[in-house]
Amino acid sequence: MNSKIIKFYGKKKSRFFSSVMNGGQAVRAESYFEISYMYHLEFDSTVERWQSQPQRFEYQVNGRTRVYTPDFLIKLKSGSYQLVELKPKCFTQSDEFIEKHGLLNDMFLSRYHIPLLVRTEEDFFDDVRNENLRRLYRYKKYDFSRFDMEKAVAHLKRVSTVGELYQRCADFNVTSAFGPALVAQNYFTTNLYSPFSLKSEVEVAYA
């Protein structure tokens, strides 16, 4: 692997990720890869909450006891759960990995009725989208509770770009965080796979 790939997946420098979805809980992340997935979960509208490194499980292989810790436990808004192993795509092709994952998945399904899913960079990572999520994330905790959001969105529903959205938000005499928070908290949607700018198109998502 080249140095760029090692830096992306490597575990030499850990840092803490503050999860808005989990009430501001500080979660240790050991790589940019893990942090990118955490951003992805925080913006996933199907996810209610998630936990990193939930607990250790014992399982048997050829009569020997082994220990395995899933990377994530995810509760969906539907009420179902998922376990996730986060893995670079290049490490998921070997027969050894496929056999081990099959064994673990069968175990979790039989014991807990929860699947163990494998997620790679192909499932969630895009350079532009990840940068957009990172920049918008600070607005995830903006407090809209003091506003009548139905009236606010009704006032803004005809805007078509981010620039227009921000300009119209000025009518509310609010801080500059109000506009980007509308996007971060899914009152308005935009294409996050394109660079985020004042010219980015937006649509009302709030109902």
Labels describing this entry:
207 residues; alpha+beta; Trna Endonuclease, Chain: A, domain 1; 2 domains; four-stranded mixed beta sheet; elongated; disordered N terminus
Short description:
With about 210 residues, the protein is of the alpha+beta class. The protein contains 8 helices and 10 strands.
* Biggest sheet details: 4 strands, mixed
Cα separation of the termini: 47 Å
Q: C-alpha Rg, in Å?
A: 20 Å
Q: Please state the structural category.
A: alpha+beta
What number of structural domains do the residues give?
2
Topology-level CATH name of the largest domain = Trna Endonuclease, Chain: A, domain 1
Strand content: 15-25%
User: What is the CATH architecture annotation of the largest domain?
Assistant: 3-Layer(aba) Sandwich
**Can you tell me the CATH class of the largest domain?**
Alpha Beta
Silhouette? elongated
Q: How do the strands of the widest beta sheet line up side by side?
A: 3-6-7-8
Percent helix: 25-40%
Record field, number of beta strands: 10
Low-pLDDT residue intervals, each spanning 5 or more residues: 1-6
What is the ordering of alpha helices and beta strands?
A: HEEHEEEEEHEHHHHHEE
Return the average pLDDT rounded to an integer.
Answer: 91
Query: What is the helix tally?
Result: 8
